[in-house]
Design brief:
There is one protein chain. About 45% of the residues lie in helices and about 15% in strands. The protein is α/β, with parallel strands linked by helices. The chain folds into 2 domains: about 220 residues, 3-Layer(aba) Sandwich (D-Maltodextrin-Binding Protein, domain 2); about 120 residues, D-Maltodextrin-Binding Protein, domain 2, CATH 3.40.190.10. A 5-stranded mixed beta sheet has the order 2-1-3-11-4, with helices on both faces. Helix 4 crosses helix 15 and helix 5 packs across helix 6. It is globular and about 75 Å long. The two termini are about 25 Å apart. About 50% of the residues are buried. About 5% of the residues have low confidence.
Amino acid sequence: MGNGSLREAESVSRSPDRDLELRCVRLGFIPLTDCAVLVAAREQGFFARHGLDVRLCREPSWANIRDKVDSGALDGAHMLAPMALAAGQGVPGAGIRPITTAFSLGLNGNAITVSRGLYQRLQEADPVAMATRPITARALKTVIAADQRAGRPPLTFATVFSFSAHDLQLRYWLAAAGIDPDRDVRLVVIPPPRVADHLEAGLIDGYCVGEPWNSLAVEEGTGCCVATSSDLAPLHPEKVLLLRPAFAQRHPDAAARLVAALIESCRFCDVPRNWTLIREVLTHLHYLNAPMSSLLNETGVPFNIAHPTIRSHHQFTIFHRYRANAPTAERAHWLLAQLVHHRLVPAPSETVRERLLAGFDPGLFSRALVLVAEQARLNALEAHQTATLT
């Protein structure tokens, strides 16, 4: 999986020995650390092992992915889990309805980062609150009150999409300190790869985003990470594999093989000894185009510059452990409750709720698990035969 053997992100992994009912599958992704699951599935041959031709398409924003899945330009995508639920409910701006997902790409993985200038103000406003970990927004409430008295414009915070775990987590962090996210600050949407540049330019004061864009700001000295999503909502669902319903219905065998390959890839990505290989590929221009030091760093980034506490990335981003990949009704219920609580979507009727939960397809996931077990049996048989021959 080194750079020497790297194929272009637009190239196709092929396995000629299986005749599926499908031309290549087009999957979109956003340049984030958790797209490693899709990248490893292609680069390590998990897709090919299951007889799939897969084309990975890097997209600049979640809105772009939404539109391409809607139009059929993509068969599926690395997708925000709350966005999938909002889309299935027909909320304006969310896109795709109905939805089909049979796979969660992992748990945790986000963080809240503020500018160095704002961090300094927070320390001066409430040093006691800033001395604890995770840092609450108590000091921020004091700063906001001072700005309001002085007639200054509200601070600006960014999330990556209105219907995202990032938006929910930022709102929770603010509200827990008595800050009204809709009145006391200005919330804007910026695509993940651009948030660090906006922070450095002074266009925003903070953001909630997935890795590596928190670690990058910390490493470059432009931001301070004040809390991670594993602090705020441990084991929260983050991304899902969203498939166009027409694709899943027309190609059920390919859909099951796709999920099986991703289960194997998640197992691979969850093992720290594989991270060097993963980093080498993710840093490539066609994937994240980010420094290796900001990707899956075992020594503990993202971290707060003032509190360089070692934090294991193995708990910060979870690819497979804790049944991370199962599209459970419990996780869908939790996400929907959060969206309703923060008034991002209306409370659904029982009919709509049932339709949304039907989109999280445990049957397809179960069929994929059978294929994973069969592939493991074949791998063991091949290894035995190879050992016998040698």
